Amino acid sequence: MMPETEFLQDAEVTPAKLKFDRDTVSFTVKGTIPIQSALSPKNPRVNLIFKSSEKTLELGELDLTKKVAEYTYDKSFILAYEPWMEGAFLEIHFYMGKKSIDEPNEKKVLARGVITTPLMAKVGKVYPDEPIPQIGLFISTGALDADLTRTREFLVKFAPGSSTVSQNAATKATLDEIKVFLTENSSISSFTITGLQSPESSEGRNSKLGMDRAEAVRQLLEESSISIRDSVLKVASRWHDWFDFRLLLRSYEKLSTQRKDQYYKVLLNEADYESQAADLKKIPGFNQVARDLFPNLRAVRIEVAAKPQPGLDPVQAGLLQKALDDQSGANSLDLADWLIAGETSPRLEDKEKIYSKMTELFRSVIPYNNLAVVKMRQAQRTLAQQSKDSLWSQANMLLYQASKIDTNPYVMHNQGQILVLQGKSWEAYKKLSDASVLTRDPEFLKYNESLRGALDIMRGDFKLATLRFEYDYAEPKYFFNKGLAYFLAEDYANASLSFEESVMSGRNFGYGFYGLAMIAAESGQKEVALIQLEKAIHLSELLYQKALVDPIFEEIRNSEEFFQIFRSSVAESEK
After folding, report:
1. pTM of the model
2. Are 11 and 33 in contact (CB under 8 A)?
């Protein structure tokens, strides 16, 4: 029996690790077969195969060139990449003797797996053990983003020196006003109750009076069924402080501007309270001002910041439901009302009904585009490919109708996103590029350019891809794509920063850890690579399977520590 690699000893492949590059896998196989008097092979043949557990690709027989002391072979291949190749291995077979012999005399594995790092770019595809990516861009009215916060102040007055709330008409009117304001603006961002204390001698010198008044009003609100969340409620008091007197002075109409300036000069001189009190008393007419304004400081000031809940009011909601149920096309709401209704409806099913009805009532790009986005997101939620294809087809038809009404960047972006998911990356890239030149809206460009950047990664334009991600992100997938672009451009410093940002923005998103493991492996830091890889495979079954065949980790794959992290991951998942 011949030694195992007597004739294939110097067979090699370049590059040593096969790589996905622009939809192909390219490599060159070369080597020699020695001719020796004792061991000269008869009828030598060399075959190449690329195989995995799923498929075998016969690459054929290599041409041998006979020289004095050896046969040589040298052949280049460019293969269209297919998913099964990621875990496949490239194997060379040597035969000699009769051509009818099927079993090779020798064989040698030249490469294991294909580095498919560019295909890790997140482009909206759904994977079984990962959260469903949010895809598609709605055309927004801005109603959810606009700051509609309103502020209002209310005053509850007290008798001199008292912390007991007077149950009079004025107090009842104030409570009614608060209820009306909160009914109209039910989303409360802050609710501050501040107990005040007048400088009058009848108020006494007890510094607790203001806080006692504040607590009394808080209790009154609870008894009046005005419930405020603790997270937005603040109860405080002010004593020996001219701040509230200064606020009252601003709207006091019995003083000239010149006289008010005298007061402000004292109130803003940063002296202590007692010194300011003495200086105020020296101003002509102070006693009259005190008689008019000090009683308003025997009070609790309630300051509320709130905004309406997004969506239609009850009357509008009733008209919307009537229009949805009516088959005759009757409608009492305008386009803006319908758009707000669609935008603020949380469920895709409700959005679908609203936008579908809008396509019957209005000639506008928005309902067609937004209904298409609903279809796209519904497609994300089904595993049946036939259902996905049907929903994508419906979405494309709606986007086509929208494009007939007007040229719109959102429509083009959504067409591009569907093409990405259908695997038509070149057509998608053209759509996304066309969309980018139609608007300078930074929020739109952030998402559109990020998807273009992901496609740049897949197309092999790594340096260009790094320029697409110069936006502020909050989601880990965007940081990961940014890190991936830098990693493939061999800028490991910036890649590391981006992968770390991906980890920080979502510690349950394993891809940031996987990126850090790739950097460590490329840098020869075995221990660091294993630590980061262990975190990644614990968080994603997809990454678990990828790490087992990824040639990036080939140098550490044969170590006991490598397989230990996989065993511990399996044990953890079985608990």
Report:
1. 0.73
2. no
